[in-house]
Structure formats: structure tokens, C-alpha cells
Amino acid sequence: MNDRNNDSFTRDKVLRCAQDDRRFYLTRPALPTRKSRIPAGRETFLRTKALCAYLCGEFFLPVHASHTPVFPAPTPEPLPQRLARVGLRATRQRVLILDGLLTLPGHPTAEQVHQHVTRQVPSISLGTVYKTLDSFVAAGLTRRVASAEGSSRRFDADCTEHHHLFCTNTQEIIDYCDPQLDALIRDFFATKGLPDFQPRSFSLHITGDKVTGPQLRADEPPSAG
Ligand SMILES: [Zn+2]
């Protein structure tokens, strides 16, 4: 029996965040199988045919998996509490703007968040949305993301350490987490060092195109026939 083929995580290559329903597309298994390689504070639970992972503080499920998770999904933190945690008063506008950030796919722009919020508050100005997003960034609730537009115009409600896949066709920015890759990068800089610079964190921005058809895995040789 080939465990790899029976592993719904590697087969589906798509994970759904149970907190906000975002989709994460992976081209190869993102998690090492040895728990010792998981960074402190991140817990991973592996099963033979299904995988449930607490990764980057979020709970992921394979999209097409027909299994019941062994561990219950954590209850998402209510938006007013998220705001209060960083010292921001939970006004209706702030809650709606944060909701837009979490709901809109692909790391939205301020304009997209504004459009989302005007469905409920038609009078809100784009300037207010910009100012609110800036206050979220300053409070550490949100971060800016570099994109093809050349500046940090896009926003990310996930401030945990992760990488980004940027699709040049759809302009989507897709979150990508891989503790094995993180360990490689950390080891590299620990060994090689950087002149006159102490790295604190890192985030890769990988540019490419989303592929929808079947792909050859990087660790599998082409079949002979
Ligand atoms: Zn992100």
C-alpha cells in the first residue's frame, strides 16, 4: 500500500481554514512527519489517512476529506475580542472592516475592503477605510503585503509568520506555510550569517501561475510510459 497516495492531505493539496474558510493550495506536503521538527508553539497532529493541523495558529482541514477530525476545531475568536486584544475599541466600522479583511480572498486591497463594507455602511469613505487599516497595521492586527503593484497595497489579517504565492494571472496572493522550508532558511542564515544584519523573521514572496491540472510532484521522477 502506498501511504502517500492514501494520504488525503497530499492527494487533495488543498486545505481549508476552519476559522474563516480560506483555501490554501499546496503543491507538496507542507508538514514534516516528525513532531520534533515543528517549531515550538505549533502543534501538529498526524493521522495515517487524514491530517489535522494547528499551523500558524489556525486550524486546517483537507477540503475533500470525509473524515471526522480527532481534535475539535477551536472556536474562532470573535472580531470585537480581536480588536480589544490589540487595544482598539470595537466600533461597528472597525468590526466590518476586519470582517472584510478576513472574508475577502487573496489579501484584499483597501478598495476591495471598502467595497465590501459599503454593502452595510454605504456612507463609509475610502479614506476612513484606509485610516482604519493603517490603525490595524500599527496595532499589529494586520500587515501590509508587497504585490505586483510594486508597493504594499494589499493587506493580510494573518500576522503569523508565513510565505506568499503570488499568481501573476489572477493577482491572487495565496498563503503558504511549510515548517520544513522555514527550518531550511533558519539553518542557512544560522550557518552563513548576514553581514551587519541580524535577521528576525522572514517571508518568501514566490511569483508564478496557478496550475489547475495534474502536476508532477517535485520529488517524483517522470513515468517511463
Ligand atoms: Zn498572507
Structural write-up:
The chain has 7 helices and 10 strands. It is of the alpha+beta class and 225 residues long. The chain folds into 2 domains: 3-75 and 160-208, Dna Ligase, domain 1, CATH 3.30.1490.190; 79-156, Arc Repressor Mutant, subunit A. The strands form 3 sheets. It has a 5-stranded antiparallel beta sheet. β3 (44-46) and β4 (51-55) form a beta hairpin. α5 (110-118) packs across α6 (126-139). The structure holds zinc ion. Zinc ion is lined by residues 107, 156, 158, 162, 164, 175.
What key attributes describe this structure?
binds zinc ion; Arc Repressor Mutant, subunit A; repressor; 225 residues; 5-stranded antiparallel β-sheet; single chain; alpha+beta; 3-stranded mixed β-sheet; metal-binding; Dna Ligase, domain 1; disordered N terminus; globular; transcription regulation; 29% helix; 7 helices
